[in-house]
Automatic annotation (TrEMBL):
Its main location: membrane. One of its GO terms (cellular component) is plasma membrane. The lineage of its organism: Eukaryota, Fungi, Fungi incertae sedis, Chytridiomycota, Chytridiomycota incertae sedis. This is Neurotransmitter-gated ion-channel ligand-binding domain-containing protein. The keyword Signal applies. Residues 25-212 form the Neurotransmitter-gated ion-channel ligand-binding domain. Keywords: Cell membrane, Ion channel, Ion transport, Membrane, Signal, Transmembrane, Transmembrane helix, Transport.
Length: 404
């Protein structure tokens, strides 16, 4: 190395117009000494080679919960020191730019990469002190698990995991690269034009994890950028939630149709039931398939229940009228006219409140739903008692039975 230094320095002293390309050739050819070995890491028989990494995030797109994959446009920057690549400082403090395949580069890869990607472009620069800076631009498809219990008002953690392999001698160690220096973890580097369709970037977290297997097996260094993003639910509200709500609201209008108009009541109820089934097929085709119900799945089930109850209620009213129990019919109709829309609004508000935790607003809504149910039960109980009294009076002949 000393021979190389003196030779290069002598050339610079004699000819200040020497090109950086010539310096690069001398570094790699190493005349008079051992040729540069791009398969051997720096300090192969010494301490582990320290490699520092940094991400620059440009854009998040194609977040697909169906396949548990999301895509990132990003730069991966690596920096390490290779003493074999030192040279006298050239004119204008320039750095060498060479092909990465000509020198040793660390074996580092994306742990949660879903589809193998090739760098769109890359740059490798060598400073005179042997510091190597390697920047690669990726369009990266990464895998992660999505938590969709709160869908479509969910928040997700999207990790970008970089891992290096070290054997039992710890030949390679991975850490963060900070432009400002001194800090263990860098501030998130995010392009000012960072954007995503349907997702809003909330925060970014950085972690460094070391994993050692049993019995002194190899060690892995994990660098993780975790993006915490919130889904924009506007499109789901307009396309799915509002239509479902209006279908259920229309089902409460059946209680205002004269129960003697059997074709009108049956036709209206069946039309709403078919409309809700059709919308459910449309919604299901666009929603992620998971083995647990999401918020939207639960709401769809409740909408079916409201429509189905409207059909059951009319069947009960019709049977009561056929059996001659006409006095119970108006009370049942009046109850459902008031209670059904109130319960629909309360439940819709409850299920789509932000977050999964129990909060005062949810507690108030639960109390209102319970009070409404108890008031309805009391109302039915009162009218049932009145019906029994009237039935007894009709049998004794004190009053005239009502006609259907």
């Amino acid at each position: 190395m000393l021979h190389l230094f003196l030779l290069t320095f002598g050339v610079l002293a004699d000819n200040t117009d020497i090109s950086l390309g010539a310096i690069a050739n001398r570094l790699l050819q190493n005349p008079g000494g051992q040729p540069y070995d791009n398969l051997t890491r720096p300090g192969a028989f010494g301490d582990p080679t320290q490699v520092q990494a940094q991400f620059r995030l440009n854009r998040l797109f194609d977040v697909d919960p169906k396949t548990n994959v999301f895509a990132m446009d990003l730069f991966l920057r690596l920096r390490w020191n290779d003493p074999r690549l030192t040279f006298p400082e050239p004119l204008h403090n320039e750095a060498l730019r060479i092909d990465p395949s000509l020198i040793w580069t660390p074996d580092i890869y994306f742990y949660n990469e879903a589809i193998q990607s090739v760098p769109l472009d890359q740059t490798l620069k060598i400073s005179n002190d042997g510091t190597v800076f390697w920047s690669r631009h990726y369009l990266m498809y990464l895998a992660t698990g999505f938590d969709l219990h709160n869908f479509p008002f969910d928040s997700q953690k999207l990790p970008i995991q970089l891992v290096s392999y070290s054997n039992s001698q710890q030949t390679l160690r991975l850490n963060w690269y900070n432009d400002s220096g001194g800090a263990a973890y860098p501030d998130p580097i995010v392009n000012k034009t960072f954007s995503s369709v349907l997702w809003n970037l909330n925060s970014i977290n950085t972690t460094l994890t070391n994993i050692i297997f049993r019995d002194g097996q190899p060690q892995f260094d994990f660098l993780t950028y975790s993006l915490f993003v919130d889904r924009d639910p506007s499109v789901y509200i307009l396309k799915y939630i509002l239509p479902l709500f209006f279908i259920a609201l229309c089902s409460t209008l059946t209680y205002w149709i004269d129960p003697t108009a059997v074709p009108a009541r049956v036709g209206f109820g069946v039309s709403l039931l078919l409309a809700s089934i059709t919308l459910n097929f449309v919604v299901s085709a666009d929603l992620p398939h998971v083995n647990y119900p999401t918020k939207l799945d639960t709401y769809i089930a409740i909408i079916f229940l409201f429509v189905f109850i409207s059909m059951i209620e009319f069947a009960v009213i019709h049977v009561l009228r056929v059996m001659g129990r006409i006095s119970l019919s108006p009370s049942i109709e009046n109850t459902f006219r008031i209670v059904a829309p109130i319960e629909l609004v309360l439940y819709t508000t409850y299920i789509f409140l932000p977050g999964l935790e129990v909060n005062p607003v949810r507690i108030v809504i639960i109390i209102l739903m319970i009070v409404t149910f108890l008031a309805t039960a009391s109302y039915f109980g009162y009218h049932h008692i009145q019906f029994k009294k009237r039935q007894a009076l009709e049998k004794s002949g004190e009053i005239t039975p009502l006609k259907a």
